[in-house]
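Researcher: Here's a chain I'd like modeled. Treat it as a single chain, no partners, no ligands.
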Amino acid sequence: RYACRARMSLLVMPMLADLAADACFIGAAAGCLYSLGAAFLVHRFRVETEPPQHPAAAVSIFKPLHGSEPELERRLAAFCKQSYAGQVQVIFGCIDANDSAIPAVKRLKEMHPDADIELVAGGPLTGGNRKISNLINMTGAARHDVFVVSDSDIEVGAFYLEQVVPALDRRGVGAATCLYYGIASGNKAPANLSALAINAHFLPQVLVAIRFGLGQPCFGATIALRREMLDKIGSFRSFANSLADDYAIGNAVRAAGCKVSIPSFLVGHLCAERTFGEFFVRQLRAARTIKSIKPAGFAGAVIANPFPLALIAVLAGASGLLAVASILCRIVLCKAVERKFRLPRQKSWLLPATDLALFAVFLLSFFGSGVAWRGLHYRVLPDGTLAQIDKDRPD
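Model: Modeled as a single isolated chain. Structure tokens:
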């Protein structure tokens, strides 16, 4: 009996290996076609501004902060000197009353005495999501009825509000969000890998998902909504334990019968990872976040990264031309994003390393549910909420 089982194993294992190799070959070929198709969709993406329909509404900008990040003061200054006809209040918030970002805010207040700048430092924690706790504490300082929430690592131009706020005037719109591209801080390899992960993977995937109705995004890069809508969806408190708080806010707006508008311009996202450890921790959190939102779509998105699949197929006996073709298709997509959105020249020679690193993160994301966020460690529960854990790193 045992000999029979051994013979069966010897027969089954090669069959499974052949099936896996064939699946990788097909996946890599499909991924090449996907990359070329995505490049075409990027080329067709319309870049335009929203013309104002009504007098410029007064706006309260929320900038939740945590720690002194690279180039933080420069990025924050852009929100304090917007070319916008309406009143603008900028609220900076820190959970910790001694946060290292506070000196930058104080310098901004001195440098821009005519700007309406508020600092909310300290306050209670509500739930596991500290960013949401920060926003809850900041809400009491808001004097206007249009809220624009933007993460601390986001870079905008002078006409940012002029492009975002009019989107709320469209019929049926309850919120507006912005697509974003990656900007590498300095010349460190981890930061460049992170920027490529956004520009050559995340951004094209989002554009494809929007084009074919496969996703309804809402990003922390920008969430604009009226106070009335925020009250209607239960205020920020409703998202106090959500990992993907931005996605949850967008879902709540849609559940209230409204749309989330996406103006056709991009904001920048600073990638400041200094070590490969920081890069992997951040990418793993992003992967497990997306997996908690759309598990089937996350698994299917593996074809968007054809190079690792092609390498596996080549090791199993396929032609090396498949690996070369996959990299060339990825470069075509990268260059299409670069040209369309007028980005600085991308380090496309890093694409093979980026693709392999993201494939490793993709595989690792299925083993465990831990994430690290702002120095704290959490477990992602099946419903997408957070439970804080005491561990040195995510599992």
